Structures are given as structure tokens and as C-alpha cells.
Amino acid sequence: MILGPTAAGKSGLAVRLAGRLRGEVINGDSMQVYRGFDIGTGKLSPEEQAGVPHHLLSFVDPRDQFCAMDFVRETRRVLEEVRGRKSLPFIVGGTGLYLKALLDGLFPGPGRDPELRRKLADEAAASGLDSLWQRLERADPDYAHKIGRRDRVRIIRALEVYELTGIPLSRHFQRTSGFLRDFHCLRIGIQWERRELVRRIEERVDKMFERGLVAEAEALLGRGIPETAPPFRALGYAQALSVLRGKMTVEAARALVKQETRQYAKRQMTWFRKMAEVRWFFAGDDEAVFALIEAGG
């Protein structure tokens, strides 16, 4: 498993290692699963994939909600297929909740309560999403700070679980077991000096806009994808929609995406630093990572 903040170069490292070790890459990013959302999610082009098999990319209709349990189920399926081919799987991504679900498990319930969800959604509409996040922070501060203030789906789910069970979601997670018990899983973290990571983030955002992020969002709307589709909440796409509505200039959107991506990268590192058994390497140290994998950890 290769993890780390956005713009760290995880996907490129996975391709290089997989090419040397007869491996296959399994996407662990919650937004790269959606079809058509390519530029803003940083998907590798077919050329950049360099002939290495990739899985769980662009296979979900953007109108559908793809959750952590879906990720666990699909990843387990692909892992068995990769193992059957005697290839080495590389799970690669920066969505901490998905990776944690795979490693540590998901609790089995409770199920969804449509009436409670409507009530929480109405409250968010009336008082703002931040009011719900503050409620979650009081009930479950650990989980609230892991997901951040903008994650509407997870904020509502966490409050739903808390109101239905009286137990914080983070405590439910502590009582579960992982889905990789029959695999030997190396956890490889990729890091940069902060100043260099900020430079890489800003360069990546500039390239997103230069490659046509706003035009991609406009084309998706033209294909009938509604603005309420889950991937339109992703960094970059939300701001592109504001540009298309005339609420923001391209330059203002670009600056805001840079700011929010820097904040997101900081939250990712806070999350990953709390994960157990991660072996951290500075980007570019391919040979040290290769040697670790060759030695079996």
C-alpha cells in the first residue's frame, strides 16, 4: 500500500515499482473511481500508466454514491484476481478513510435512517454545514478533525450513527477488524519537505486549469451529469462550477483550489501519521522502497 498527501507522486512511484516487480495498481482515491472526472482528480493518462494494469479507475457512474464499503468490497475482489495471476498488488491513494476501512475494518451498522438524514440535511441547508460539523466535533472530535468541515456525506453519516447508537463513529471503528488479514501488507508512506510539497501542489493546480478543468466540468454538465453528483464536490470541480455560474473568476478559482488543496494535504498527513506500521520515505527514494519490498518488509 502506497499512501501520502496529494501531489506527492504516489501514482508514479506505484507504476515504476509495479513495472519492476510484475505488479498491478489498485486505485485508492475516492474520486478517481468516477467516469469522466479526469483532470481534477489527477488520473494518470494511459501513457503514464506505462502498460501496468490499473484497477478501480473510472468505473463508477458519477451520479452514484461510492462509499468506503463499496471500496472495500471492490478492492477485495480485485486483490483475489491479482493474487490468482501471481502478480503483486499495489493499493495506491490518499483517501485515508478508504485505506483505514480496508486495514482496520468497518462496523456493520446501523443502517440508514432516511428521516434522520433529511432532518440533518435540512439543518445543513438552514444553518450551514459548519453547524453540523461543530455538533460532530462535540460528539466525536477525533473523527470530525479527520474528515474536515466540507465533507457533507461523512458528517451527516457520523451524526446519524451517533444519534442512532449513542456511540461515536470513531469508537465503532476501534471495535472492528480489517479486511486484509490474509495478506501481508506493507504500508509505504511518501513525504516531502513542506515547502517542496506546496510548490508541487501549486504546480499541479496550475496544470489542472491549463489542461481544461473548467471545460471538462462544462462538458460533464452538458452530458447531463447534475451539479449534485458526488464528484462535483471534489476539490477543483466545486470551484469550476462557480466559474461556470459566473460567481468566480478563473484566477480566483485557481487561487482557492491551491489554498484548499494545501489544507487538504495537511489533513491527510495528520490522518496518515496516526496510522500504525507506516514506513515513511522521502519522494524519489525508489531504491530504498524497492529494497524494502524485495525483503518482504
Protein architecture, described:
This protein has 297 residues and is of the alpha/beta class. It folds into two domains: 224 residues, Rossmann fold (3-Layer(aba) Sandwich); 61 residues, Histone, subunit A. Helix content is 55%, strand content 8%. The protein contains 14 helices and six strands. Strands 3-2-4-1-5-6 form a six-stranded parallel beta sheet, sandwiched between helices. β2, α2 and β3 form a beta-alpha-beta unit. The N and C termini lie close together (12 Å). The mean pLDDT is 93.
Write the layout of secondary structure elements.
Blueprint: E1 2-3, H1 10-21, E2 23-27, H2 46-49, E3 54-55, H3 68-84, E4 88-93, H4 96-104, H5 114-127, H6 129-139, H7 141-147, H8 152-165, H9 169-174, E5 187-191, H10 194-210, H11 213-222, H12 237-244, H13 250-273, E6 278-282, H14 286-294
Parallel strand pairs: 1-4, 1-5, 2-3, 2-4, 5-6
Helix pairs in contact: 3-4, 5-6, 5-8, 6-7, 6-8, 10-13, 11-12, 12-13
